[in-house]
Amino acid sequence: MAQFKSDFMRVLHERGFVHQCTAPEALDEQAAAGRLVAYVGYDCTADSLHIGHLVSIMILRWLQKTGNQPIALMGGGTTKVGDPSGRDETRKLLTAEQIDANMAAIRRSFANFIDFDAVGGRKAAVMANNADWLDQLLYIPLLRDVGRHFSVNRMLTMDSVRLRLERDQPLSFLEFNYMILQSYDFVELARRFGCNAQFGGSDQWGNIVMGVELGRRMEDRELFGLTCPLITTASGAKMGKTAAGAVWLNPERLSPYDYWQFWRNTEDADVGRFMKLFTDLPLDEIARLEKLAGAEINDAKKVLAFEATRLCHGEKAAREAAETARKTFEEGALADNLPTVDVPRATLETGLPAYEVLRLAGLAASNAEARRLIKGGGGRLNDAQIASETAAVTMADADAEGRIKVSAGRKKHVLIRAV
RNA sequence: GGAGGGGUGGCCGAGCGGUCAAUGGCAGCAGACUGUAAAUCUGCCGGACUUUGUCCUACGAAGGUUCAAAUCCUUCCCCCUCCA
Predict the structure, then answer these.
(1) Would you say the C-alpha torsion A370, A375, A377, A382 has a positive or negative sign?
(2) Using one digit for the tens of pLDDT, what is the confidence trace for A162-198?
(3) Which residues of A spanning 331-390 put their CB closer than 7 angstroms to strand B?
(4) Share in percent of chain A as helix, strand, coil (round to 5)
């Protein structure tokens, strides 16, 4: 297993993308011949993907870079059912309109990671939507053509089902059908696009294996499945939680600056692993950077932040984020690119209590939270600790351009701009 | 359909007439120490306000008993287990 014929499988192993794989040798053959057409399915439960999805997106990226073809499948149809994998409770059902809106927002994220146009001899990536075929299905034909290949005995042993049953959590018949639909997706993509592999997170193993089997039974095709590990931080926490919640890929949800900051704050012990997974940097460069110790590893973190942000938001945004961070943290200067909130000049001329300013800046969810923050010594105005939560903030605190810097702690900064 | 058990804050989980905005743990936020790291220690952790206090909302839902209810009663909804 040490030697791979294909660049694709070699890269995946070297960089730590592989958790489980159905038929590694045969998959390697396909990849080496450039005949791999692989898909990853994405739920449309939110209007943005987050970094939890990033590992699989990076796999699609490598797939394309190594001469094979990626398919990003939008779960327009399966989202109507709800995947029970890894869930104790039934997902909330979304309306068709919500799903469509989410799908439209998610699509844009992919454009930065994979190419949907064939350029430089690369195969163009494909974006598909399983609503295109799932919405058309008829119950009896589906049962006869697809359902007969599934054994309920087998389905009951699948983690997604078994865990629910063992914990006495309800599992609706609707959800029970999810794996059948996902398996059918695989077959349908094989028919339409010659797709022969599916990738996903480790929680998708069961669903993927069922699809591989269905392909063999219905179409006599050899399909492959590969899962990537669940990425946790060195301290064991599930990755991707920040103050504001998930680390989103859409800039409307999370600014490129905050995205950069997320990576910049990576734990020391994770730097090398994350650079392998979330950047294109060559391995020898990564090896050099991760060896940095003590305060020097901060340089490696900046590289990680820049590269990861460049992939997601583009080179320009990454540069701006890095520059904003440099000014803010290294010079203590006021950088224009910090997240900015506009406040009417007249309001500031009258003066606002400090707690309200923190709330307006989005640094506290309520006035009470802002007051607590200040009482606890975490509220800052132009880098000076705010002494009293009712201290008035006025235009006198603004610089020549009418900007005031407010902060929650030492790391989260927002500009208030008088307009 | 019958019998029993249960639904508490983001999650887990105590409380079972007043001292309950509700013990504890996790998660989160801030402070100290540092390197925008980890670990550790400290504080905070429903909301509004004229903040050592007052008011509002909240223990599945709606009613009721009581000076007083997360705690008692009634009805309803939902979940689980066993039986049919």
Answers:
(1) positive
(2) 766 666 666 777 778 888 999 999 999 999 999 999 9
(3) 355, 365-369, 371-373, 376-378, 389
(4) 50, 15, 35
Q: Which nt is closest to the CA of A172, judged by C1'?
A: B79
> Which helix (H) or strand (E) element contains residue A290?
helix A283-290
d(CA A403, CA A401): 6
A244 Cβ within 7 A of any nucleic strand B atom: no
Question: Strand B closer than 7 Å to the CB of A410?
Answer: yes
Q: pLDDT tens digit string along A354-391? A: 999 999 998 988 898 999 999 888 999 998 889 888 88
pLDDT tens digits for range A114-161: 999 877 778 899 999 999 999 999 999 999 999 999 988 888 888 777
Q: Is the CB of A328 under 7 A from strand B?
A: yes
On chain B, which bases lie within 7 A of the protein's CB atoms? 27-32, 34-39, 43-49, 51, 79-81
**What distance in Å separates the CA atoms of residue A55 and residue A209, rounded to the nearest whole number?**
20
Q: Helix or strand or coil: residue A354?
A: helix
Separation between the CA of A368 and the C1’ of B55 (whole angstroms) = 15
The DSSP bridge partners found for residue A258 are none
CA distance A240 to A260: 13
Pairing of strands A224-228, A69-74: unpaired
Phi, psi of A190 (to 5 degrees): -65, -45
Residue with token string 């605190």: A397
Residues of A (281-300) placing their beta carbon closer than 7 angstroms to any atom of strand B are: 294-295, 297-298
Q: How far is CA A332 from the centre of its chain?
A: 31
A85 forms beta bridges with none
Amino acid in the structure at residue A173: F
* Locus of tokens 């910090």: A338
